[in-house]
Structures are given as C-alpha cells and as structure tokens.
Design a protein that fits this description.
8-stranded mixed β-sheet; Rossmann fold; alpha/beta; 2 domains; 6-stranded parallel β-sheet; single chain
Length: 371
C-alpha cells in the first residue's frame, strides 16, 4: 500500500460551483474521488487553471475542498506525489510544473472518448473542441469500467499504460430529506432525462418505447416528459420524418400526453415515484441512474452492469423496452419495498467506503508511483 500523506492534485473546471455541479458527472466524480483519497489518508487538492482569491471550494455536500492554482505550482515549497488530469486538460507546461514538484501524472477519462472522438471528426469541424488529448508527459491513463471497450484505443492514442479504475458514487449531493419526501401518485408519469447532446445518451429509443406502449395501453401512464428535449422537438428532421409516425407525439396538443421540456435536475423532476426511462450506448454507469436507484425510483434501462436492478431491456430493443416499461408501471407499488432493499445493496458495491474499491485504488496508485 502507498505511504500515507501523499499529496494528490486533481484538475477540475475553474467555474465549478453548485450551479455547474450537475452539468456533467465529471465534477461529482472528482469530489467522490477526493473523498476516497481522503479516507486512504492522502492530502487532496483540486487544481484550477485560473487564479482565485478563495482557496477552498464549498459544494452541496457541505464539504470544503482545498484549491491550488498554477501560481501555487511556482512555489518550490509545494510538493506533489500525483497530479490527476480529470475535469480540465493539463497543458504540457502544467504537467512539467507538477513533475518539477515531484509528481507522477495520470490522465483520468470519465467519458467515452472513443465514440466522442468519432462524433467530433464526423459531425463537427473540431474548431470548438480544443485540445482533448495530450500524450506528452503521462505516466498512466485511467478509464472507467463501462468504457473498457476503448482501452486499446486509448493505449495507442495516449502512448501509455491504460488501467480500469472502479466507478464510485455517493448520495451526498442529493438533499438529505428528498428520498423521504417522494410520494406515490395514482398513475405514474414517465420521465426521460438524457442530455441529448450525443449518440451516447439521447431520447430517441425512449420516445419510441413510449410510442409503442401508447399504442397498446395509452391509459397505463399519466404523462410523459422528455427533459432536455427542446433540441429534439424543434429539430426539422424529427418534425418532418418521425413525429408523423408517432401518435403519442401527434396527440400531444389534444391529449396532453407527451411533453418536451428544458433541462431539470433529478430532484426537480422526481417529487413522486414516477418512472425513469433511460437509454445509453456504451455508457451504462452514470450518476443520474444511481440517484434514481438510491431514491428507489422505478428505473427502466438498458445498462448491462445494472441488469439485476430495476426493469432491464437489452441494447436498442424497443419491444423489450416496452415490456419493461409496462412492468414498471404495473408493479410500481408492489415491487417498491423489495426493490429498495436490492438497490441499497447494489450501491454499496460502488461506495467509497467499500474496502475492495479502496484496495483497488491503492493498487493503481502504487503501480504508478513505482514507475
């Protein structure tokens, strides 16, 4: 096991605060990782690339995280054992500064880089992407288990060893009383909350599943909401090629059955035990799913690593998805207590307090320090 009192810096976006914390999962993942390292006895600092007066970051979990900036790297009295590139790309100059202070450099990728790189070169000119991959001065690369398919791609791209690190999650960014405040309603709503900015997580399959259910049993649910859905609803192709085939969408004006809404947080959406209907492509572990599982929200999904939880359907199978959604709606109250017991047991396997997870991160750190 690595020595105690290691100094570890983790890069995070400079505009991070409670308002931007839920814009993507990476910042939350960094907070979880910081707390895990704290449990292992390490000193953790969040690195931002702009100077700021306050030297701590307070987040919704009521914890304060020490901050360092590039100016702190110029102070020779500051030493580091590890610098982890996570929420913000470290430039070569920044990596050189960390190395000069004694650090090994790790590039932690929380996203599906392979498919995102495909999207970038096929669908954009890349001018707004910036520098995403810098292979220079990297000692190790870490990726998450549900992105194992990109391991060999990242090995070549980053010219470094690539290791799979455990996915971790804790519920402390949810308001403490929220789960207790959730109530049943006579007929559940359906919520789809994919970001709709990528093929990785978008609402097309869930919309199709809702349409399939609507044709069979339109009275089984109250209303369906496509959150983050305005981009889809306003899209000419969706309007001219898809909606005319979808009765649930066409009936929206008269029957009030399917709503496309702007972005909302999990807490804002789920005041009742409604249904979370999800779909992903090669992105099966994410914080929104875990929030639903923790709060015992009926969860219809295609996440392989979570196939024993909620109501699972495979890959892009709309027929299976319809069956899973119908089961979730029909058994919402009946399965509630049994699902909660299973859900909480499942979440323990991803907790920062899980000894196996702590052991694996200790091994990964020891490996890179030994290089």
């Amino acid at each position: 096991m690595p020595k105690k009192n290691l100094n570890i810096a983790i890069s995070i976006r400079p505009d991070i605060d409670d308002n931007t914390l839920f814009h993507n999962g990476v910042s939350q993942n960094i907070a979880f990782l910081s707390d895990l390292f704290g449990l292992l006895g390490y000193n953790v600092f969040l690195h931002i690339n702009t100077d700021r007066e306050k030297k701590t970051l307070a987040l919704a979990n009521s914890k304060r995280y020490p901050l360092i900036t590039d100016s702190d790297l110029n102070n020779k009295s500051n030493t580091f054992d590890l610098a982890i590139e996570a929420g913000q790309i470290l430039s070569v100059v920044q990596r050189e500064a960390f190395i000069a202070r004694g650090a090994k450099v790790i590039s932690l990728h929380c996203g599906n880089q392979l498919i995102m790189d495909m999207e970038t070169i096929l669908y954009t000119d890349g001018s707004k992407t910036g520098i995403r991959h810098i292979p220079d001065l990297i000692d190790d690369v870490w990726i998450l288990p549900h992105h194992a398919h990109q391991l060999t791609y990242m090995e070549v791209l980053m010219d470094a060893d690539v290791n799979i690190c455990p996915y971790i999650w804790e519920p402390y960014f949810l308001p403490k009383q929220h789960k207790r405040s959730i109530r049943f309603r006579d007929k559940p709503n359906i919520y789809v909350m994919e970001p709709n900015i990528s093929v990785l997580k978008n609402a097309l399959i869930p919309i199709t599943i809702i349409e399939s259910l609507h044709r069979k049993k339109p009275d089984l649910y109250n209303k369906a909401y496509i959150v983050n859905g305005m981009k889809i609803y306003d899209h000419p192709f969706f309007l001219t090629n898809l909606t005319k085939n979808f009765s649930a969408v066409n009936n929206k004006i008269s029957a009030d059955n399917l709503y496309f809404t702007p972005r909302a947080t999990f807490v804002e959406a789920f005041t009742h035990f409604d249904i979370l209907l999800s779909h992903h492509w090669k992105n099966s572990l994410n914080n929104l799913s875990f929030e639903a599982v923790f709060c015992n929200i009926p969860f219809v999904h295609n996440s392989e690593e979570m196939s024993d939880i909620g109501y699972f359907y495979s890959e892009f199978d709309v027929r299976e998805g319809t069956q899973a959604l119908e089961k979730a709606l029909s058994n919402n109250k009946k399965d509630h207590k049994q699902n909660d017991t299973k859900n909480q047991q499942f979440l323990k396997s991803f907790s920062i307090y899980n000894k196996q997870i702590q052991k694996r991160y200790s091994e990964l750190i020891e490996k890179v320090l030994s290089k």
